[in-house]
Each structure stands twice: as C-alpha cells, then as structure tokens.
DNA sequence: GTGAAAGCGCTAACAC
DNA sequence: GTGTTAGCGCTTTCAC
C-alpha cells in the first residue's frame, strides 16, 4: 500500500485487459461485458484502485465542485443549511467549495475566486452585481441566487416566501388586538432584512393593520437592543415589534423589559426570524419564523445542475414557504 | 469571451513564444527573461488567460484542496473558525473542502471521502480512529487533529490548553469563596467536553478545591436545563456550576433561577465555555471561556503543509491559550 | 465488446 | 533563457 496509488493502467495489466476497459467498467452505462467487468473489479479490489478525480476532471471538463457563497450571519444562524448542502452534494460525489463573506454582503470577489477554481456551478447567498453574473455566464457556470434577487438572463433564484409568512404574522397580530407595530430593520445593503421588511409592510396593508414604523438596527443583538432602548418612552406607544432576525428581537425584548419595565407578551408582543437557538431559551421564548433551508439548498443545487445540462432552459424563480413558530413572546 | 477559455498554447501563439515559456512566466521563481515575460503577460491579458488549476493539479500531483472535518456543534458555535480557515487558505490559493459530522463525532467516513477527493492535507476537529490515521499515512496525506488526541506517528495535534484555563477558573471560584462545585459534562464520546472536565477536575485539586461532582447533560441547552432541574433541591448544596459549553451553562442558569428560585451570582456562580453569542445576552451575562480558534486553525494549516514538505519531521503537539471572559454570572 | 491512440492543459527534464 | 518532449490519469472517438 505504501507509495504510489494504483492507476487504471495497473489495473488493466493485472486484469489482462486494456486500460479503456477499466475506464468503461468504472463509468456508468458504458458497454462492458460481464466477464471483463468482473476481472477488472477483482483487479481493482486487489490494488485498492480508485479513479483519480483530478484526472477525471481534466478529461471531462468538470471539477465536480460547487461553489457556495454565504454571509457570516448565515453560516452562524442557519446551521442546517451548510450541512444539508454538503450532504446533498456528497450523495452525487460532488463537493462544496465554501466562501464566506462578511457583513458587506459582497459576493463578487468570492464568485471571482470560485470561477478561478473552476467550480461547475455557483450557489450564492450573498449580494451579487450584474457584472459578476455576466462573468459566470461567460464562463458558462450556472449561477443560482439564494434569498437574493437579480434580473439577469440565465440566473435562477430560490428563496423564502417572506411575503406569505409575513401575512400570517400580520394576521396574528391583528387577531390578538395589536394596534401600532414596529419593524426592526437592518442597515443598508442587507437584502434579507429588506425583503422581510417589504413583506411585513405589505402584509400590514393587506390585513388592515396600520403601516408599521421602521426602526434600523445592526442585524445583531446589540443593534436590536440599542435601537429600541433609544426610543425611550416612545416605545410604549407600540404593542408589537417584528424584527428582521432573532438576535435583534431578543435585543428588543431586553430593552423593552429591562429598560422600560414592560411585560411580554402582555404589554407588547415580539417576533423574530430564523428560529435560532436563542429563541428557545426559557428566558425569552421568542416567537419566530423558520425558513426551510434544507429545501432551499437542495432546490438551488437541483436548479444549478439542471441548467448545466440545459443552459437555455427558461429562468426559474422559486419561493419556498417558511413556518411561523409561535412561542411565549406572542399571545394566542 | 463566449466559448472556450484560453489555454497556455493560445497565449504562446499570440505572444510568439513556446508554451513552456508561458508556463514559466506563471510559475514563481522560474527563469524567464524580462522581455518574454512581458510579451506573455500582454498576450495573457488580452486573452483573459488564467492557468487551469485542474490541469495544474494533475501535473503537480497536488489538488490544492485541504479537507476540514468539523462537528455540527463547531460549525454553529465557532463562527470565526470556519471563516478564518477559509481566509488563511485563500491567501495561498488553496481551498477548503468541508465535511460536517453530526453529534456522533465520527470523522472516519468524512476522512475517507476527503481522501477519495485527493485533498492534499486533512484538518480534523472530530474523532478519528487509528485506522483512519493509518489510511491517511498510506496516502501520504498529512493529518492534523484539532482539539482531539490520538497517539499515532505522523499525526500532529493542536488544541486549546484546557488544563491551563481551567486552573484560572478554579482559582477564581476558590477566591470568591466557593465550596462545592458541579461540572456539567456531555455524554460519552464527546472528546471536547471530556477534556474540559479533566482540566477542571485537575484544576480543583491543584488549587485546593474539593473534587467536583460530575453531572451529565446533552451538550445543549435542554441537556443542561434537564440535568440541573433533575437534581432538584440537591442543587442547593452547590455554589458553582462549570459547564462544558455555553448552551448547557445557560440551561443550568434557567434551571437554577426558574425552578429553584436561586439568584446568580449571589447564591450560585455559573461558567460556560466557547463565549458564544448567547453568553452576551443581558438576560444571562454568562461568564465564559473563549478559545482562540483563529490561532488554532492557522497553526493547524501551518502544521499540515509543513509536514507535506517535510514528512519525517517530528510530531508536533501544540496547546493554545484560551481566555477567561468574566461576566455577570460570576462574582469578582 | 474491445483495444489503440488522441487529447484534456499543465509542469518539468532535457538539450540547445 | 528557451523550445522540445514526455508525462500526470483519466475519457472518448474510432477501427476492428
């Protein structure tokens, strides 16, 4: 076993067949007689032969690598996402090349790196410019956007149906007698927060709730706390806070209870987003919304490889339903 | 731009030089005259030429891929770890192939997959059998263990100095008048929790604190809560709980305050581990311990590639200091 | 069904 | 310094 690994030539020699016979044996649906196949497999077994993926890549023109671009936030808060993506890929023998972008949400340089690496497809859950999309198109590398939006021919998209789930949120608030509400947004350039805000604002109009006030925090716990704490007594005028994510919602809860002495959910209801581990703590019991990241990722992968086969296919734009997860921070 | 990408032959033809001249121009410290280099670079620029990493891999026998095996827990709770690993690798033009193992902490199948993928090195922050280590050795793929331990020639290790930081913890507890303490351990097979437990137990002996009681939870919030809640009034006999991680510590806090009506840190002090986002919430203000994951990862990468150059180098075993982060769940 | 041979795009001896 | 040539380990025509 020590030393060089066996090649298809070694196997061929031992099996007494040609090297191409070995190649055929290891390629699905290729012609090879039962006899040859058996001889080859026996020899391969004996030598511990495994086809070299690198040589395969060079020959096939496919690296069997998929690029995945995520933000630091996603990496932390959608734990199942990364794992399910890796799992889905592993099934087909492909692997994931990860790129993590920070809060600036700029996926362009990550995409450039992945392209240089010759990935077959790119899944991007970060902001992307048209220029980057064009680069992918020129390299014939399918680009699928996750929870982001870009109008560019050939780019597929998949993400959560924020508009839909927010309608349920607004309806719930209205049903529980809520009057004035606040949406805790994140700063400029946070596409996900903005999408959730748009969904909530539209939902309020839809169910007949007054238009919410918009408060801007930092998409994290401190951001949510400070934004609400700075409202001071003005915060007492609202009876529900809907946040763009869980950390902000928890920050809001701490500001409302610790700073203003309000009681949750009696005085004010709070709703987060992403159903993170924090939401389940008994000290908060935060009502939240769970995105179906498993489905989103597997659909994204499916779309990407689908387009690799059929580049001219019409652009897809898929919305996946999220789930409302009621807990103690809202009333029934 | 549309269509096939340029190869070194295209560049050679346009520049009026040989293909090998192009190769040399793009390889650091290879002989090439200023003139040729300039011509080549100009031609490359014009054609948008970028050396194909796949062909390079085949020729060099290096994939420029590093395998990284982490547990699901690590992926969630050491957010900086993954990013810093990716960053460090990206600098040198290498990439990371991620494998995520679940709570069983079994890295063997992940390692097998990475080996099949022909990664150059493997960094493993999950449990590994001797057999797997041997497989790596036979394939001449350096294996570096992160926060795990295995006695196998050629395997380097790097991890947190749990013994050292736990000595500080024990000293702090002793200095603040603590008498009887509990260590919240995780179940069988959780190497990290066990290492922290061993460190704490030894530290107690070292500073003259009575041997701690060991309580076993599930390495998560519910696990910590239930373990302590089930103690019932017996929990009142202890004045400090040291947990193997933050979620368990927070669970302990909730059980101690919500179920037993104890006050923290006046009645009982609680200390977690990993300094996660949860620890900073005002509702808990959990004293914790921060591992220096950036350093651990960069050292691991350094060790792995170092051994690739020098396979016979003597085995390394590095301990990196962690930091005690005092917050409101402990007294001064 | 099977083998011979070309080719994927690069690096590295080797000779000049 | 530079060009020629032989690989790296596969897949895939193309004859037979």
SS content category of chain A: alpha/beta
- CA radius of gyration of chain A is 26 Å
| Share of helix of chain A, binned | 40-55%
Q: Find the CATH superfamily of the largest domain in chain A.
A: Response regulator
Shape of chain A: elongated
How are helices and strands ordered from N to C of chain A? HHHHEHHEHEHEEHEHEHEHEEHEE
Multimeric state = homodimer
In what range is the share of β-strand residues of chain A? Answer: 15-25%
Query: Major beta sheet of chain A, specifics?
Result: 6 strands, parallel
User: Which stretches of chain A are poorly predicted, pLDDT < 50 over at least 5 residues?
Assistant: none
In whole angstroms, how far apart are the ends of chain A?
66 Å
Overall CATH architecture of the largest domain in chain A: 3-Layer(aba) Sandwich
Which chains share the greatest interface? A-B, 45 and 45 residues
Report strand order across the widest sheet of chain A. Answer: 2-1-3-4-5-11
CATH class of the largest domain in chain A: Alpha Beta
Structural commentary:
2 copies of one chain form a homodimer. With 332 residues, chain A is α/β, with parallel strands linked by helices. Chain A folds into 3 domains: 8-51, lambda repressor-like DNA-binding domains (434 Repressor (Amino-terminal Domain)); 63-160 and 293-321, Response regulator (Rossmann fold); 162-291, Rossmann fold (3-Layer(aba) Sandwich), CATH 3.40.50. Chain A is 44% helix and 16% strand. Chain A is built from 13 helices and 12 strands. In chain A, the strands form 3 sheets. A 6-stranded parallel sheet of chain A has the order 2-1-3-4-5-11, with helices on both faces. In chain A, helix 6 (79-91) runs parallel beside helix 13. Chain A is elongated, with a radius of gyration of 26 Å. The mean pLDDT of chain A is 95. Chain A binds chain B through residues 1-2, 5, 50, 52-55, 57-58, 63, 72, 75-76, 79, 82-83, 86, 90, 95-100, 102, 113, 116-118, 138-139, 221, 225, 247, 250, 254, 258, 277-278, 280-284, and chain B through 1-2, 5, 50, 52-55, 57-58, 63, 72, 75-76, 79, 82-83, 86, 90, 95-100, 102, 113, 116-118, 138-139, 221, 225, 247, 250, 254, 258, 277-278, 280-284. The structure holds a DNA duplex (16 and 16 nucleotides).
């Amino acid at each position: 076993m020590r030393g060089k690994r066996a090649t298809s030539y070694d196997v061929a020699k031992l099996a007494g067949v040609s090297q191409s016979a070995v190649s055929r044996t290891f390629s699905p649906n290729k012609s090879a007689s039962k006899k040859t196949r058996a001889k080859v497999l026996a020899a391969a077994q004996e030598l511990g032969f495994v086809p070299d993926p690198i040589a395969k890549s060079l020959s096939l023109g496919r690296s069997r690598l998929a690029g995945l671009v995520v933000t630091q936030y996603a990496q932390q808060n959608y734990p199942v996402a990364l794992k399910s993506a890796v799992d889905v890929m592993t099934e087909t023998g492909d692997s994931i090349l990860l790129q993590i972008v920070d809060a600036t949400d700029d996926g362009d340089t990550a995409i450039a790196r992945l392209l240089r690496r010759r990935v077959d497809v790119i899944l991007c859950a970060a902001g992307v410019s048209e220029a980057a999309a064009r680069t992918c198109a020129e390299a014939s590398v399918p680009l699928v956007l996750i929870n982001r939006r870009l109008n560019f021919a050939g780019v597929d998209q998949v993400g959560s149906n924020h508009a839909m789930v927010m309608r349920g949120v607004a309806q719930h608030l209205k049903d529980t007698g809520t009057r004035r509400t606040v949406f805790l947004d994140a700063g400029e350039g946070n596409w996900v927060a903005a999408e959730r805000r748009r969904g909530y604002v539209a939902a309020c109009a839809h169910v007949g709730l007054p238009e919410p006030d918009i408060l801007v925090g930092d998409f994290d716990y401190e951001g949510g706390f400070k934004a609400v704490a700075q409202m001071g007594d003005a915060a007492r005028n609202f009876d529900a806070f809907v946040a763009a994510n869980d950390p902000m919602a928890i920050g809001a809860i701490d500001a409302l209870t610790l700073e203003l002495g309000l009681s949750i959910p009696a005085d004010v209801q709070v709703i987060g987003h992403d159903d993170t581990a924090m939401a389940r703590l008994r000290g908060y019991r935060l009502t939240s919304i769970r995105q179906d990241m498993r489905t989103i990722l597997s659909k994204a992968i499916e779309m990407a490889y689908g387009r690799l086969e059929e580049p001219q296919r019409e652009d897809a734009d898929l919305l996946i339903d999220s789930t409302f997860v009621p807990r103690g921070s809202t009333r029934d």
